[in-house]
Amino acid sequence: MGRILVEALEFQAAIRTTCGQLGYHARALEAGTTIFMENQIADKMYQIVSGIVRLSKGLQDGRRQVLGFLFAGDFFVPSGFVVGINKNATCTAEALTDMQIISLPLRNLDALLTDQPKFASDLLLATERSLIQAQQQMLRLGRMSATERVTWFLLMMKEQQDDDGDASIHLPMSRIDIADYLGIRSETISRVLRWLRDHRMITVSDRATITIIDSASMCHVSGGFYPSRL
């Protein structure tokens, strides 16, 4: 079991033991479930125990921008990390996979921070990581080529799913999801995957399963930018 998942389960157990009276709630969600919608009142914060969440935002012309993907151990608040009550959600969150999630009313956050000092530290780190992620996304969209972006994304997914050295990556998100996140066309993703395959860096089993066979070369292709949970 991965370290991040273990930490999430430990946090869940601690909250259940000491803070049940605060409105803590754990639940299982099926893939495709909407956790909250953009502009909905944001009155809870969440932590992922297992599974993957897609964050997206609608544009005025009807298009959609995928803001990111969240994984086991990640915290998120509908209004971003400016925590407050009765603010509107700035994006839509959906379960990409079957998942386990913790929610807590924001009105009880002060009590939780007092009862769980480690949670306060974890939330601060999550806030810092959220800001770094935003900066890195600006770098990817502004300076990285399509090949660098796709290669980076595969390395990031590999790092998230790495378990017992397995080089296979499961991609529950669609090519359109990935394209919307990376700011490129879905056809470009297919072209880059073919290029990586032809250069013997990956093998492609199906649309949802890719195996990295030369991670060193992929790190080089990505511009030397190896992700660390970013």
From TrEMBL:
Keywords for the protein's UniProt record, in alphabetical order: DNA-binding, Plasmid, Transcription, Transcription regulation
Keyword Transcription regulation appears in the UniProt entry: yes
Gene3D superfamilies cross-referenced by the UniProt entry: Jelly Rolls (2.60.120.10), Winged helix-like DNA-binding domain superfamily/Winged helix DNA-binding domain (1.10.10.10)
Pfam families per record: cNMP_binding (PF00027), HTH_Crp_2 (PF13545)
Ranges of residues in domain HTH crp-type: 144-216
Record-linked SUPFAM superfamilies: cAMP-binding domain-like, Winged helix' DNA-binding domain
Residue span(s) of domain Cyclic nucleotide-binding: 24-113
GO CC annotation terms, alphabetical: cytosol
PROSITE patterns from the UniProt entry: CNMP_BINDING_3, HTH_CRP_2
Molecular function, one GO term: DNA-binding transcription factor activity
SMART domains with a match to the protein in the record: cNMP (SM00100), HTH_CRP (SM00419)
Record's keyword annotation contains Transport: no
Protein name per its UniProtKB record: Putative transcriptional regulator, Crp/Fnr family
Organism classification: Bacteria, Pseudomonadati, Pseudomonadota, Alphaproteobacteria, Acetobacterales
